[in-house]
Amino acid sequence: GAGVSQSPSNKVTEKGKDVELRCDPISGHTALYWYRQSLGQGLEFLIYFQGNSAPDKSGLPSDRFSAERTGGSVSTLTIQRTQQEDSAVYLCASSTKGQAYEQYFGPGTRLTVT
Amino acid sequence: GDSVTQMEGPVTLSEEAFLTINCTYTATGYPSLFWYVQYPGEGLQLLLKATKADDKGSNKGFEATYRKETTSFHLEKGSVQVSDSAVYFCALNAGGTSYGKLTFGQGTILTVHP
């Protein structure tokens, strides 16, 4: 079946602009996760959704970052007033409830802030 | 806080050599432990897992044993192939309030030559 998909695959934006990154989880997966992968910081957890609610937002680096999930499916990660240090690959993952440990990852969105 | 430390890479081996990638962790309680792999041009995928002390996870000829006394989860393979060339990430899930969060090590690049 279809895996986790993310769009766009690549995004180049100017410093100060807002960007939206989209994640489509595997059908039937109720849990969704966002991570960030960068050279300096490795793989960092950002936020976790169970259904449409986010019980753990502890990894969001600043109030410029927000995420929402609607209909228990698609999620959008929004970065406002982008900075160069936001440049990274943003990964989305999903899992079935009760199988939170087996997270299935998407291919990622490579964000470059110029 | 929770953390994972992996051996520094990159690791370069000849085909059929023995592989060990060291991983140690710091966590409160009894975390679950994982190895994820990222093949060139592909997304992260779960390689193996262990959810309690002394469990051995295994997949595709790779093995790792959850050692609580040494807080370790070293990855081993008896005979590597060129197709094993990838980046390997050790990770933990601490459960509790961190139920949805994977904490990753820095990753180890493995290159296998014919």
How would you describe this structure to a colleague?
The complex is a heterodimer of chains A (114) and B (114). Chain A is globular and about 40 Å long. In chain A, strands 2, 4, 5, 6, 9, 10 and 11 form a 7-stranded mixed beta sheet that branches. A 4-stranded antiparallel beta sheet of chain A has the order 1-3-8-7, with no helix packed on it. In chain A, strand 9 and strand 10 form a beta hairpin. Chain A is mostly beta strands and 114 residues long. Chain A starts with a strand and ends with a strand. Chain A has strands at residues 5-7, 10-13, 19-24, 31-38, 42-50, 53-56, 65-69, 75-79, 88-95, 104-105, 109-113. Chain B is mostly beta strands. Chain B starts with a strand and ends with a strand. In chain B, strands 2, 5, 6, 10, 11 and 12 form a 6-stranded mixed beta sheet that branches. A 4-stranded antiparallel beta sheet of chain B has the order 3-9-8-7, with no helix packed on it. A two-stranded antiparallel sheet of chain B has the order 1-4. Chain B has strands at residues 3-6, 11-14, 19-21, 23-26, 32-38, 45-50, 56-59, 62-65, 75-77, 86-93, 103-104, 108-113. Chain B contains no helices and 12 strands. In chain B, a hairpin with a 2-residue loop joins strand 7 and strand 8. At the A-B interface, strand 4, strand 5 and strand 10 of A face strand 5, strand 6 and strand 11 of B.
